[in-house]
Structures are given as structure tokens and as C-alpha cells.
Amino acid sequence: MSIVIYAESSEGKIKKVAFELASYAKKIADSIGTSVTAVTINCSNTSELSKYGVSKVVKVNNDKLANFNAKAYADVLKQTAQKEGAKVVVLSSTTDSLYLAPLVSIGLEAGLASNVVGLPISTSPFQVKRTAFSNKAFNITEIATDIKVLSISKNSFGLVENSTSLTEEDFNPSLNDADFSVKVESVEKSSGKVTIADADVVVSGGRGMKGPENWGMLEELASVLGAATACSKPVSDIGWRPHSEHVGQTGKPVATNLYIAIGISGAIQHIAGINSSKVKLVINTDPEAPFFKVADYGIVGDAFDVVPRLTQKLKEFKAQNS
Q1: Contacts within 8 Å (CB) and 24+ apart, 297-303
Q2: CA 251 vs CA 94, 96, 205, 211: distances in Å
Q3: Which residues touch 47 (CB under 8 Å, ≥6 apart)?
Q4: Tally of structural domains, the chain
Q5: pLDDT digit string (tens) for 76-91?
Q6: Is the pLDDT of residue 193 over 80?
Q7: Which of 109, 105, 115 has the alpha carbon at shortest distance from 140?
Q8: 126 and 7: one domain?
Q9: Among 120, 138, 296, 318, which has the highest number of CB atoms less than 10 A from its own CB?
């Protein structure tokens, strides 16, 4: 009766978010005297999961699952949870898992708690802390069903190493034509060195950057920080940057350790989508920009002056401390 997590992967490699899920699930498993089982789909190397407390990996390999399909993936997770006798299923808050969590919950007739930001307050009754109202408040949710599905907010728990011995098992779940009623026509992939989903630091630009030709300045800063680049909705709407970089409530929500907003005024939808980030740094020429009200640090100044100087100082710091 293990706890089952969905270990997301990309191009056969486990994503960092899966290690956070494993760390979280292991803590619960230890408290109730069970173990952690991870489900992977078309993933070749799963050994690193053992570093974070996973005892067993159920590997599903199927060419039909090469592209994400919410219905089919949810069916895989449901059948795995049933096979393992899981009472708790844990997913992340990535875009894919936000689609999956309610489908898995329905399939297992399980209660679902989304936006979970901490370990269960109690396991009997089962209660968890969640964010609400676009991260403006918290609530305590009690799940009374026999099986529980949890969707964990990114960076809310962190990575905790807890090495275990690992066993692997191939599993071929029963999938039918109904699982593939939605067809993938094309896939658009961002080409950045660091993806927004995996980044601990995000450097984001708005219309204050004045044009796509100026993004090299942000990309250089991101490179120094090992960060992903992102943008506001207006920037992606006018075609300066790809839609895959649009962050915010209507784009990709992020919960990074550091979010740097450059030339972004701070529309409420944008702030709601990045509000879970631990530290927010804002650079803007307008001292009345709404973003300053939620910023941890703010610089009133011209990005074309501030950013190159910041990048240079960071390069010097890294050179002195390498």
C-alpha cells in the first residue's frame, strides 16, 4: 500500500519537479509506515529517484504515449495506483499535471486537494494546507475519501535526499481507443537552455524592453544566473517572444526561488501567476508600477542601464568565488 507519485520526464530524463514530489511523498510515507512508488512514462533512466526516497519505479513504455495525452496518461496513473493499492497519489502543479489531477481523482473516486503547500497537518483526519484566491490566502482542506489525490505547488517543499534501494518493474496498462480520442497534431517546444518548469530563477521581460531585438540583454543575465527567460502576456501576444515563455495566471504559473521582472508594470493576472515565487525583484522606470507593491526588492531605473551593470557585477562575483 505505497504512496504513488507521477514522476514527469522530458525526452527520457526525469524532471527536477519529480524529485521534489519524491521528497514530499517519502516524508508522508515514513510517518504512516509505507513506501513510495513512482510511475514513469517512456523514461529510460530512473535510478536518480532512489536518492529522494523512491523504493519502486513502475515503468510504462508505449509509443502511443510519446506525446502528452491527458486522458491516456490519467488512465495509466489510475491503473498503477489500483495495482499498487495506493491510498495517496501525489502529482505536481506543472501544466501537464494540472490536467491530470482531476482526471485521476475522478477515475479513482478520490478527493482532490490542489495547490498544496505543506505536509499533511493530520493524517486522521487527512488535512492539508492549500493556497487560495490566486495565492492571496490559505485554507485547510480535509479529504474524507478512502483514496486521496494531492497536487503539490512547485518549490513549496524542496528537495530532501533520503537514499533508498530501488526496484524497477515494467507495466503495460490496458489502454483503449477512447483514451486516444484527442489527437496531437503538432508540438511546439521552446528552445531555451533552461525551461520555465524546471528553473529556480526566471528572468522575465515586458513591453518596457521596447522590442524583441533587445532580448539578448535578458538572455545574457539569465545565462549568468542559470535562469530561464520568460515574458508578460502582451509581449507574447505581439509576437516578440514565443507563447511558451508567457508566464502569469493566463500563461504558465511559476513558483521560483527568484523571479526578476524587467519592464513589466504588473497586471493583476501576471502577479497572480508568479506570486508564489519566494523572492521577487522588479526593475522599472515607473516608481508607481503596481509590481513594486508586491516586490521584495525594487530598482527604479532604466533597464538598458541597470541590467548590463547587474550582469557585469554578477560575472565579477562569480569569477571571484569560483
Answers
A1: 303/208, 303/209, 303/217, 303/262, 303/263
A2: 12, 13, 14, 20
A3: 166
A4: 2
A5: 999 999 999 999 999 9
A6: no
A7: 115
A8: yes
A9: 120
